[in-house]
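Risk register update: the risk that structure generation would not scale has been downgraded. Supporting records follow, first protein first.
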Amino acid sequence: MKKFALAAALAATASTAFAGGIAPVVIEPEVIVQEAPATSMAGWLIPLIIVGVIIAVASSTSDENV
């Protein structure tokens, strides 16, 4: 009976101690979210307006006083 109790105790402790071995370390990749840069026409709009004004002023000169 002592052998049976000793065998049962060893079996109970051995099964829980070695039941899966060492689990591998799972490292989840870090998710990086980048927002797309906002495109605006303001960077091109002001120079286009200035060029348009210069062209309008240059083309509106009258030759009446010549």
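Supporting record for the second protein:
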Amino acid sequence: MSIYEKKLKNSTIESIFASSNSEIELPKYKMPKKESDPRVILEVIKDELFLDGNARQNLATFCQTFEEKEVRELMDLCINKNMIDKDEYPQTASIEERCVNILADLWNSPIEKNAVGTSTVGSSEACMLGGLAMYYRWKDKRKKEGKSFDSPNLVSGPVQVCWEKFARYWDIELRQIPMEKDSFGLTKESMLKYVDENTIGVVTTLGLTFTGEYEPVEELSKALDELEKEKGLNLDIHVDGASGGFLAPFCAPELKWDFRNERVKSISASGHKFGLAPLGCGWVLWRDKKDLPERLIFHVNYLGGDMPVFQLNFSRPAGQVISQYYQFLRLGFEGYKKIQMNCYKTAEYLVKKIEEFGIFKMIYSGEPDKGIPALTWYLKEDANVNFNLYDFADKLRSRGWQVPAYSLPANAETIVVQRILVRQGVGLDLASLLIEDFKRTLEFFKTHRILDNLTEKEAGSFNHSGK
């Protein structure tokens, strides 16, 4: 047996933690000069990942933290399939098209079997595409009318940072209507104060990041109808349905937030949130083919075929889209409704238990017809406590719970809130354990004096608005 064969034999039978690789600190910012035992490197990286929080206890994130083993198998099957190569993977492209049509039906599109839409990496890319289509529709219209198009603006309520990015990247004024102490979202009164002939459209959010509430899409649409009658101003709506787009159809079907409103020209949503797909899946659909300007579509001659492309991203694995299709078939309407309604039931339980402490005031209580399965609260002004919500969130984190505390945006920045997102996998049993830790935390503060309360920066809270 050669020396090389002896070394190879020893490396395959020795314990991972008996190997020479495990006895050294591996370089972190430079590539090592020599190769290493793959088992050891895998274990070293896995050990580092233990330092992350437990995703299932992350009650701040909107994203899925539970996947069935079948989803993992499909993701593995598609890890080397490039979603963008429709000529090479025509069946994957066909499945993407089926998903678009399923969503068109779910969102009450007037077009059957020929819906216009695409998958994206997430709802942020989907929002960018919806915003660009709005911008170019407005710009083309202004050109035809012989009017200036050099001062576009976009009107919205308190939005996720992707809309600020959109406005900055394409040099559009974002008229973001500030929160008030008694109003946390877009209203018809506030919207009408901000729109004008340079408004490319209005963005409404179905599930505000800061509170979880739905903005009143139908009411806003009717207000714009009246505005057109009075002033001749015809404005489109894009619905950012990042979370609510996969909730309202199942849990509040009577709520007219979608393409049933003619002013709604496009809808975006996150498949990897309440769409129950794994991370990296978003969708955007348009009401009609004419609502997606042709100038946004690239016809790429790729590997001998014509490939229409209107994504901002290009190469990406196909697993997320295939997994979304799996969920559509696996769960059906009934399965989605059961899962989402169970989330609302857990939210209802948490609201009841947290209110019983007597020191918290709910801003939003997770009702299916009013918003997503979430709850948002603040400390009552007369609460006789020695802690603030940043202290409270920090102490909960010592038990692994991530329940963020943060201040609301202008003009309600003096209000500090905490929020819980109830997703698939956060059931009543897990919620009851959280309530027990609420009790332990309150008892801790009764017997421990706080010298200096934490600030938002020190607590490291994250509201998932991206701001």
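The chain has three domains: 3-52, 70-327, 340-459. On this basis the risk owner (M.S.) recommends closing the item.
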